[in-house]
């Protein structure tokens, strides 16, 4: 008799993958990406941001630079603002780390509060 717990949930085209199979499949895909003939070193310049390959995904370069500068990972809710408006200019003097998305809106409006800026080049 068929036991759904021992086999896994059945889908139209087969069975659900185990965690080990998922990890193996993901590693194979990542190896194919980084060792393939089109690999250019893991730096993409898109229409909006410069992105860097971290080994598992592409991350905006400006966020990586600020993380390295402050010595911790950024929270997803912490925006990094480009002062001159050029999102491809990732020099540290052009970047400001803000406390939350509303602080970013206030920055653009010119009504920024004292505690809204977590880091800029004067905080070194």
How large a portion of the residues is in β-strands, by DSSP E? 15-25%
- H and E order: HEEHEEEHEEHE
In whole angstroms, how far apart are the ends?
Answer: 68 Å
Output mean pLDDT: 84
Separate helix tally: 4
Main-sheet strand order equals 3-4-5
Task: Please tell me what the overall shape is.
Answer: elongated
Biggest sheet layout: 3 strands, antiparallel
Helix-and-strand structural type: alpha+beta
Number of strands: 8
Over the alpha carbons, how many angstroms does the gyration radius reach?
21 Å
Question: Spans with pLDDT under 50 lasting ≥5 residues?
Answer: none
Helix content: 25-40%
Can you put this structure into words, describing what you see?
The protein has four helices and eight strands. The longest helix is centred in the first third of the chain and has 17 residues, at 19-35. The chain has helices at 4-7, 19-35, 61-70, 101-109; strands at 10-11, 14-15, 43-45, 50-53, 58-60, 80-82, 95-98, 117-119. The chain has a domain at 61-123. It has a three-stranded antiparallel sheet. The chain has a three-stranded antiparallel sheet with strand order 6-7-8.
């Amino acid at each position: 008799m068929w036991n759904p717990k021992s086999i896994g949930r059945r889908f139209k085209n087969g069975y659900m993958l185990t965690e080990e199979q998922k990890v193996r499949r993901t590693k194979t895909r990542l190896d194919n990406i980084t060792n393939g003939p089109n690999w250019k070193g893991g730096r993409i310049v898109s229409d909006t941001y410069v992105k860097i390959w971290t080994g598992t995904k592409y991350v905006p370069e400006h966020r990586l630079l600020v993380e390295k500068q402050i010595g911790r990972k950024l929270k997803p809710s912490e925006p990094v603002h480009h002062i001159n408006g050029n999102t491809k200019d990732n020099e540290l003097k052009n970047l400001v780390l803000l406390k939350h998305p509303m602080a970013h809106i206030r920055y653009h409006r010119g009504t920024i509060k004292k505690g809204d800026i977590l880091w800029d080049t004067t905080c070194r």
